[in-house]
Design goal:
By secondary structure, the protein is mainly beta. It is built from one helix and ten strands, in the order αββββββββββ. The protein is globular. The two termini are 27 Å apart.
Length: 137
C-alpha cells in the first residue's frame, strides 16, 4: 500500500484550505494493522494503533511543516522519535504511520519497513503529506 490520503482526510484538508473550518491539530501515530478499505469512509476503525511497550502518539507542530511545490507537492514534518520500553501488545510489529486530525479522522497513512520492538528500542518517523494532480501546471 503506498501513501494514502483517505477520502475523509481529503475533506479535512480541503475544508481547512478554503477556510470553511480552522486547521485541525494533527497527531502522528503508529499502526500495527490496516484494513484494505482504508480509502473510504471515516476510516478511524480501519487502522489498529500500536499499544504497549512505552508507545505514545506524538503531536505535530503546524509551523514545523516544510512544503515544496511540485508533482506531487510535498509537505514534510521534522523527524520524530518513538522510544520503546519493551514489546508492543501482542508482540505486534509496527507496519507504518498515520496522521489524524483532532477528531480522530485519518488524514494520511503510509507503510514503513515493518519494525518489531524490542528488536529496536526506538523508531524515527518523518511524516509527510503528498498532494498532486494528474496535470503539472
Amino acid at each position: 500500500m503506498p501513501m494514502t490520503v483517505p477520502n475523509a482526510g481529503e475533506v479535512v484538508m480541503l475544508d481547512a484550505a478554503i477556510g470553511k473550518v480552522a486547521a485541525s491539530a494533527l497527531t502522528l501515530r503508529l499502526y500495527t494493522a490496516v484494513s484494505p478499505a482504508i480509502g473510504s469512509g471515516t476510516v478511524a476503525t480501519h487502522v489498529t494503533e500500536a499499544t504497549g511497550g512505552g508507545y505514545a502518539p506524538k503531536p505535530l507542530t503546524a509551523a514545523s511543516w516544510i512544503t515544496t511545490s511540485g508533482t506531487p507537492t510535498v509537505s514534510v514534518h521534522p523527524t520524530l522519535s518513538f522510544a520503546f520500553t519493551g514489546p508492543l501488545t501482542g508482540n505486534a510489529s509496527v507496519l507504518g504511520y498515520y496522521v489524524t486530525a483532532a477528531d480522530g479522522t485519518v488524514v494520511v497513512i503510509e507503510p514503513i519497513v515493518p519494525t518489531t520492538p524490542p528488536e529496536v528500542d526506538s523508531l524515527d518517523v518523518t511524516p509527510k503529506i503528498e498532494l498532486g494532480s494528474g496535470v503539472n501546471d
